[in-house]
UniProtKB/TrEMBL annotation:
This is ComEC/Rec2-related protein. It comes from Sulfurihydrogenibium yellowstonense SS-5. GO terms for cellular component: plasma membrane. Its main location: membrane. Residues 188-438 form the ComEC/Rec2-related protein domain. It is found in: Cell membrane.
């Protein structure tokens, strides 16, 4: 079989998805024994038995034991940080593997931790804290009490690199051309998005170019090509060995996000195959890498970044294989088209918006990234302390930002999409079939583009009046939508709600709140009208009253809402 890892990855993924709902518990010894049994057979029978073993392996690794704890009761936890912290407006969230706890059932398991106002927490830091466990979306989240958390980096071998990264970011902020270039540059170079505000990110979302400020395989590929050019004076073997040393360190400096680790891992596999004269196949490398990811972290399969990264690279690899006899510039344009077509369903499903400009804007906006990322390596080596070198790099960051703003000014940004899982599956299967079927190149492009148009039509959201209720520990958040008009009753901000408003095609947005001070200026800028009220408010054809539970009246219909996640169709009886 030419692509064995394709079948094995699909098998493992199906098992993980199935067990997300069934949560079956199979001992790891069972798939190991079946793998050993497969060696008894030959040919097709061996491969079938091996696939059975992989399916059982997927069931085994994705089982989640749910600890029974008294929620909100004080607990002691000592754990090792197992992911790079994501910084929010008032704290950070990261995964942590528990090594000691007052609740023995937590030991050996990994949980998300939300720490407020804490610094010096890095990947592989050891932390100890007193706090509480809370349930969110069926999972436990550990929440340390402020001032009752201790961080220990004495055994963290990555600490010097991570501290150096932090100093580089600080120096970059001092030497950047402007705060805007620093915001975008920090995301491009360090994978650091905490400095990006909504206003800076907005043009990237409106042009479908947000993937360019999230370090991914394309950035690693650009860096690989640029460094290969710079190191031309070395022999091929020495050049590859040097790249093999640089890329992992660069991955650490950029935050070890899923797309970065995947891209670095694939690059290292490519380098190894070249150094040892091994045959390599891009599709097999992609699916093998994805298999390893899901094996070690089954939850990564449900990560938006993993899905977008995997589908984009899958589309690009297929494109270069199918259109391999075209000129390089033609392959770049066509690969941009198919990367967009393959990631389209994921973007619509999670974010509800689409911009066709991404197809032709991506290769144009990527041009300044070549000198930008190349010079960034020199700045990393000098700790971003040489002002003129930082400003030269930032000049290309400025060009990059202006290109994005130009495409944003075209106004080709559409919201109001919400495709079903089945529609997504049919679309991706059909798109893959069109690419691999024996058609001429023009037919492949025409059919694929038309398929995307049909998919967009069938993905349009039902914009009939709805009431969304979001459960909250204090008081529920209520969102009323009606044919592109959206009314949000809330006392705190949430990106999740903004995504739902995109899915509902909200062109007219109203925020009604008792606590305007709880919202950032960036969040407030998303709304056309902001209304303050106390206890109750009447606005247009809506009346809202805060009682034990919220009461919403829409055109004479009264809805008594509960503090739980639900969606109500207003026109249903």
């Amino acid at each position: 079989m030419i692509y064995p890892w394709v079948v094995l990855f699909i098998n493992l993924s199906l098992a993980v998805v199935l067990n997300k709902y069934l949560n079956l518990n199979i001992s790891i010894l069972v798939p190991i024994l079946v793998i050993i049994l497969s060696f008894v057979f030959n040919g097709v029978i061996r491969f079938l038995v091996l696939n059975l073993a992989i399916f059982l392996l997927g069931i085994s690794i994705s089982y989640k034991e749910k600890p029974v704890l008294q929620i909100n009761q004080p607990i002691f936890v000592e754990c090792v940080v197992s992911s790079f912290p994501d910084y929010l407006g008032f704290g950070s969230i990261f995964n942590c593997k528990v090594i000691n706890s007052s609740e023995k059932q937590l030991i050996g398991k990994t949980f998300p931790v939300f720490a407020k106002y804490e610094e010096n927490i890095y990947f592989l830091s050891r932390i100890a804290f007193l706090g509480k466990a809370k349930e969110k979306d069926g999972n436990l989240v550990l929440m340390p009490t402020r001032y009752f958390l201790k961080v220990d980096n004495s055994d963290n071998f990555l600490y010097p690199i991570l501290k150096y990264r932090e100093n580089c970011i600080s120096n970059y902020g001092q030497n950047a051309i402007s705060y805007e270039t620093f915001q975008v540059g920090s995301a491009l170079i360090f994978g650091e998005k905490r400095y990006l505000d909504l206003q800076t990110k907005k043009p990237f979302y409106q042009t479908g170019l947000a993937h360019l400020i999230a370090i991914s395989g394309s950035h690693i590929a650009i860096l690989f090509l640029s460094l290969s050019f710079i190191l031309f004076f070395l022999s091929e073997r020495k050049r590859l060995m040097t790249l093999g040393l640089i890329l992992p360190v660069y991955g650490v400096l950029t935050g070890l996000g899923i797309p970065v680790v995947r891209a670095v891992f694939m690059s290292l596999l490519y380098i190894i195959s070249k150094l040892f004269y091994l045959k390599n196949n891009s599709l097999n490398i992609l699916f093998f890498t994805s298999f390893i990811f899901v094996f070690f972290s089954p939850e990564s399969l449900f990560s938006v970044s993993f899905q977008l990264s995997f589908l984009a690279v899958f589309g690009i690899i297929l494109t270069f294989e199918v259109f391999k006899d075209l000129e390089n510039w033609q392959k770049v344009l066509i690969s941009s088209l198919f990367a967009t077509l393959f990631t389209l369903p994921v973007i619509l499903y999670y974010f509800g918006n689409f911009s066709p400009t991404t197809i032709f804007a991506t290769p144009i906006a990527s041009l300044p990234l070549y000198p930008l990322l190349t010079i960034s390596v020199l700045n990393l080596l000098t700790g971003f302390e040489i002002s003129f070198l930082v400003k030269i790099m930032d000049f290309f960051t400025l060009i990059f930002i202006q290109i994005v703003k130009f495409f944003s000014s075209l106004g080709l940004y559409f919201t109001g999409f919400s495709p079903s899982i089945w529609l997504i599956f049919i679309y991706l299967a059909t798109l893959t079939f069109i690419l691999i079927y024996n058609l001429n190149k023009t037919q492949k492009i025409a059919l694929s583009t038309n398929l995307a148009v049909v998919f967009l039509i069938f993905s349009k959201s039902d914009l009939s009046p709805k009431i969304y209720v979001f459960e909250n520990k204090v008081y529920p958040v209520v969102l009323f939508t009606d044919n592109g008009k959206c009314y949000l009753f809330a006392d705190f901000e949430s990106k999740k709600i903004l995504n739902i408003m995109n899915k509902e095609g909200c062109e007219y947005k109203v925020l009604l709140t008792e606590k305007r001070e709880k919202f950032s200026d960036e969040f407030l800028s998303e709304f056309d009208i902001i209304k303050d009220f106390t206890y109750q408010i009447s606005f247009e054809n809506i009346h809202y009253k805060k009682w034990i539970n919220p009461i919403l009246t829409v055109e004479g219909k009264v809805f008594e809402l509960k503090n739980q996640d639900l969606v109500i169709m207003v026109n249903d009886d």
